[in-house]
Amino acid sequence: MSGHSKWATIKHAKAKTDAARGKVFTKIIREITTAAKIGGGDPDGNPRLRLAIEKAKAANMPNDNIKRAIDKAAGPDAAVLEEVVYEGYGLAGVAIMIEALTDNKNRTTGEVRNILTNGGGNLGSSGCVSYIFKKKGSLSFNKSKVNTDALSLEAIDAGAEDILDEEHDVEIITTPENFEKVRDALQAKGYKPDNAEITMVPANTVKVTGEEAQKLLKLVETLEELEDVQAVHSNFDIPDEIIEQETK
Fold first, then answer.
1. How far is C-alpha 66 from the chain's CA centre?
2. Per residue of the chain (248 residues), what is the pLDDT tens digit?
3. The model's pTM
4. 3-state class of 80 per DSSP?
5. How far is Cα 243 from Cα 238, in angstroms, rounded to an integer?
6. Phi, psi (5° rounding) for residue 140?
């Protein structure tokens, strides 16, 4: 999991400052509007909306933008967005899951298929890789900034499901239901995660190095740049130095 966790942490950090912020805002607004439309506009009673708002604030989105996105869900001009999950494979046989919100499924399907094919992968049938992934809460911390043993004990006491101790990072895994509880408990103790989200965690990983790793990261990045794509999950395990080089 370390490779993809590291990738997610770096991408979220960049989203706060780089030129792609406008596109990031568009994706988050879609998620806020969809969450509000499905579960109502009160974040206290809508966990999905609550997490979307937290993601917006982490990306430095103005409160006015957040409010307009929630209000839009109740309006007559709210776009009808379909939630779609694509499954396929990348180089080295890695599994790829793509979550999208789209107003035109045919367009999005074509775009996703083309990117996968051009990147050396292929679009698969429903269920071909989803069995590898489980929805989990993930909180990543840089080991140079925390006492790993103390953090792990606090996380376990708060209800964490697993601790992944990697070379440079420690990742706390929770059930989706316990994610906010564990995150809030750790933050109350002074532990601020570099990345915190509900994501899809793979049961196994595929080590990828060298040129294949670089091409695979480019494939994932190209998928993530699609306006309709909300999240890309994979089971690649790529060395940190390659990920850091490719995201500079």
1. 19
2. 455 666 666 666 555 555 456 788 899 999 999 999 999 999 999 999 999 999 899 888 999 999 999 998 877 766 678 999 999 999 999 999 999 999 999 999 999 999 999 999 999 999 999 999 999 999 999 899 999 999 999 999 999 999 988 878 899 999 999 999 999 999 999 999 988 999 998 999 999 999 999 999 999 999 999 999 999 999 998 887 888 776 66
3. 0.87
4. coil
5. 7
6. -110, 140
Whether the CB-CB separation of 174 and 182 falls below 8 Å is answered with yes
CA distance 221 to 58: 20
Q: Are 122 and 242 in contact (CB under 8 A)?
A: no
Instruction: Read off the amino acid at residue 120.
Output: G
Alpha-carbon distances of 159 from 23, 133, 195, 223, rounded to whole Å: 35, 21, 18, 34
Residue 202 token pair: 């793979």
pLDDT of 112-136, one tens digit each?
A: 999 999 999 999 999 999 999 999 9
Specify the 3-state DSSP secondary structure of 212.
helix
Domains of the chain: 2-74 (1.10.10.200), 82-131+204-246 (3.30.70.980), 132-202 (3.30.70.980)
Residue written as token pair 């989990």: 136
Tell me the β-bridge partners of 175.
none
Please give the Cα distance from 136 to 202 (Å, whole number). Answer: 10
**Contact residues for 127 (Cβ-Cβ < 8 A; gap 6+):** 87
